[in-house]
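Researcher: I'm preparing a figure for a lab meeting and need a structural model of a single chain. I don't have an experimental structure, so a prediction will have to do for now. The sequence is pasted below. Please return the structure as tokens so I can convert it later.
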Amino acid sequence: MMKTLKLTKRPSSNSRGVTLVELLMGITIVAIALALTAPTMQETFARGDIRATAENISQAIRLAKNTARSIGQPVTLTISVATADNSISFTDVGGNAFVFKTSGVRLPTIQLPGKVSVAATQAAFRFDSMGKIVNFNQLTTIVLKSTVVSSQALTVSVVNELGYTTMVDGLVTSDTT
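Model: Understood. Here is the structure written out token by token.
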């Protein structure tokens, strides 16, 4: 007894796939969805840049304070607010880049994002050998604004001579010590 094989019919080539009109409709729907979410994404990225900059400034203040206390020598933290060079640097009493004498390790200059403008009522903080800010000003604030999305801003306030900071952005208030 012989078995016969059934040959199946191949589907015709024009019964599968998408038409050009269907493809264009799909692309149009995706483009509309992207256009609606783009402003939200810009705001999210701007908020992230500002938050990261505020964290960098708060951490740099703590680093300068702790370094001054641990080695028993003054350390100055300078926030450069020039538009071309947003950065944070650490210097010794002579104004030179701060280098640990025992290890030769230099405290790094921290580059801040170019998409964030920085304005400070006090751009330099000098910590004495006890880790306290010399000539502390009660109204020390650092205002960070997005250069991309004008509605995004955050204020970092140095609240006492020990270098404790508070961040306020209108939506969230957080305290970092």
